[in-house]
């Protein structure tokens, strides 16, 4: 649609004279007075003319009414009109005058005052308040550019004498300062002052936060001390009958734990060479420990193995996976292993290593990691101190016995069914198993028993973790084992039957069940190495036939996560939760927060920011995970849609099934 803008100028002319409008466009005659537009006089000495809206520079001049002769040009710089900045289809100009707008960004909505050399700025006599709108402070006034070639001004923040800017001086001849026929000038000194105030405010907030954190820490420390004192008092007040029963139970069920903590303290005092020999001997002898159950043996063996691996690395008795020197292609599994090794080392300080036969853990350390005796439940009591408890065998025994008694009563099961496997730091963690029950049954039993919920809420805030401790065990000394997931990937974690590439496929195609159709963007330019997925049971989720149980394909970068955890233990929730508080729709149509979870994208180009290239020979490779996610559990706010971000809250709704290797060209 054609748009016209009405130009108006206030000017009193002599009889027989008229105002003309010309400019640098064909419509305005390209500065030729004979082709200029003569304006029409109206009441109040307002001259008007309608011009087709377009981009141009223009000026007014006075000349004879009938022909543009005896010309008197309007002084000052050319005026400017930009089509895309026009909001009002009428403009009113004043002869010899230009409108000036001083502005600055002010998202904090400070009260800003301004004064200056121009009459409209009070000639430095007083400060006037700037207008605030859309996170911006502005002040507009008229100047005569023939008399004022330069504008000086000064700003004051919140009307405070100590928050004044230096006096700025700006020329008005620059045509690029025009925006919709207004000369715009940014208050640079004010921007500097506002940034400085914002930095000071942030520093103040950070100091207050640290003070509050320290206050909370001291309060929690006092609570821990009181709780520990209560524990000692409760223990000393028990009847002799209970003490005798406890001693008998401790001897049968807890003795291996106290022995293991004592052994660990002795190991920590030894030189590194002797530690290696002791750890290796304990690993060999642990199967002969008649006091320990099979589950306790497996748990302790893994802890010793992880410590041994750390000591072997410290003493230089391990070998790295070598560089790939031949067949450096994306389809070569050795390239994939090397890229994974380098990614673990760089991003997570974890390594895949080789050692001699004497210290080898055996291939079952990887393949058997998720056997029935290779997992446990874990609770964490933040009110107890690990070091205090393990340095007092009596206190340690009391804590473990009390936990077994209260848990068995709350679940209405025999105390013998609760098997303590070990303790660790964080603040005080107990790893255990309930024999005869799987994790689903245990969770259901807790859900159905208010007494169990009450006890667990008091002891560990209701948090019971299911842990595959081959991937997550801590050292008996309480510290996180260095490289605790070392030697955790093997060729058996891959399934070559499902290796493939997508280079000859289109960009995308429609996938998914009828209730959740979506665009599947093929990972072109990548080679996919299949992963074993047999532990997922029914394979409807991975099919591509549109069945009702088919899960959606999404991609995930691995920079912030341990790759071996992803392969062995599914994806774990991430730390960067920028959109957790945003609103979205759940599978029932309810408005809910996005929440914490694992971030995905349906495009590899987005995930590329969460990987780093690895050099192999003269080539570079990146690694991604191709996953199926439960479409009912995908969370995406409106703000996430333009950037192709998706969140899945729980790792049980994520199933990685292929590693993607991408060569950088």
UniProtKB/TrEMBL annotation:
This is CBM20 domain-containing protein. Keywords: Coiled coil. It comes from Paramecium primaurelia. Residues 180-237 form a coiled coil. Residues 1-97 form the CBM20 domain. InterPro entries: CBM20. It comes from the Eukaryota. SMART domains: CBM_2. It holds the Pfam family CBM_20. One of its GO terms (molecular function) is starch binding.
């Amino acid at each position: 649609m054609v748009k016209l803008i009405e130009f108006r100028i206030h000017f009193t002319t002599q009889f027989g004279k008229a105002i003309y409008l010309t400019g640098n466009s064909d419509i305005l005659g390209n500065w030729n007075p004979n082709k200029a537009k003569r304006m029409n006089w109206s009441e109040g000495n307002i001259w008007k003319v309608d011009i087709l809206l377009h981009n141009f520079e223009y000026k007014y001049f006075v000349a004879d009414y009938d022909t543009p002769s005896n010309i008197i040009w309007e002084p000052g710089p050319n005026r400017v009109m930009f089509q895309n900045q026009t909001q009002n289809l009428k403009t009113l100009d004043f002869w010899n005058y230009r409108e000036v707008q001083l502005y600055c960004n002010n998202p904090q909505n400070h009260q800003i005052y301004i004064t200056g050399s121009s009459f409209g700025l009070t000639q430095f006599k007083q400060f006037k308040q700037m207008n605030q709108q859309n996170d911006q402070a502005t002040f507009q006034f008229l100047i005569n550019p023939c008399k004022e070639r330069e504008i000086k001004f000064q700003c004051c923040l919140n009307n405070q004498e100590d928050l004044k800017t230096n006096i700025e001086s700006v020329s008005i001849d620059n045509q690029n300062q025009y925006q919709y026929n207004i000369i715009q000038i940014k208050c640079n000194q004010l921007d500097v002052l506002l940034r400085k105030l914002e930095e000071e405010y942030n520093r103040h907030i950070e100091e207050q936060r640290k003070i509050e954190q320290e206050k909370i820490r001291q309060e929690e420390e006092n609570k821990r001390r009181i709780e520990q004192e209560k524990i000692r008092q409760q223990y000393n007040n028990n009847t002799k009958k209970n003490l005798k029963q406890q001693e008998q139970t401790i001897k049968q069920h807890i003795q291996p734990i106290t022995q293991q903590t004592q052994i660990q303290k002795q190991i920590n005092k030894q030189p590194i060479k002797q530690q290696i020999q002791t750890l290796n001997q304990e690993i060999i002898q642990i199967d002969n420990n008649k006091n320990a159950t099979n589950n306790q043996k497996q748990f302790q063996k893994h802890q010793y193995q992880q410590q041994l691996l750390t000591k072997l690395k410290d003493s230089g008795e391990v070998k790295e996976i070598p560089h790939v020197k031949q067949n450096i292609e994306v389809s070569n599994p050795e390239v994939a292993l090397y890229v994974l090794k380098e990614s673990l080392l760089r991003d997570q300080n974890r390594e895949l290593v080789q050692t001699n036969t004497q210290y080898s853990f055996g291939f079952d350390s990887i393949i058997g990691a998720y056997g029935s005796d290779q997992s446990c439940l874990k609770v964490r009591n933040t009110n107890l101190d690990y070091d205090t408890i393990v340095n007092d065998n009596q206190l340690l025994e009391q804590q473990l016995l009390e936990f077994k008694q209260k848990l068995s009563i709350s679940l209405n099961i025999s105390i013998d069914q609760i098997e303590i496997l070990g303790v660790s730091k964080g603040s005080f963690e107990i790893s255990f198993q309930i024999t005869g029950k799987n994790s689903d049954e245990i969770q259901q039993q807790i859900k159905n028993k208010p007494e169990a919920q009450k006890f667990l809420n008091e002891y560990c805030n209701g948090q019971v973790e299911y842990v595959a401790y081959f991937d997550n065990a801590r050292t008996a000394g309480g510290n996180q084992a260095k490289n605790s997931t070392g030697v955790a990937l093997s060729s058996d974690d891959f399934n070559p039957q499902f290796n493939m590439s997508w280079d000859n496929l289109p960009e995308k195609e429609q996938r998914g069940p009828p209730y959740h159709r979506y665009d599947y963007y093929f990972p072109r330019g990548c080679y996919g190495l299949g992963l074993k997925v047999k532990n997922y049971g029914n394979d409807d989720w991975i099919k591509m036939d549109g069945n009702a149980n088919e899960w959606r394909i999404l991609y995930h970068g691995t920079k912030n996560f341990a790759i071996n955890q992803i392969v062995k233990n599914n994806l774990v929730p991430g730390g960067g939760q920028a959109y957790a508080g945003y609103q979205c729709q759940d599978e029932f149509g309810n408005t809910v927060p996005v929440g914490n979870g694992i971030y995905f994208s349906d495009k590899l180009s987005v995930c590329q920011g969460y990987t780093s290239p690895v050099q192999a020979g003269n080539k570079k490779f990146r690694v991604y995970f191709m996953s199926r996610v439960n479409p009912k559990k995908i969370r995406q706010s409106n703000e996430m849609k333009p950037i192709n971000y998706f969140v899945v809250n729980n790792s049980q709704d994520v199933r990685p099934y292929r590693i993607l290797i991408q060569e950088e060209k």
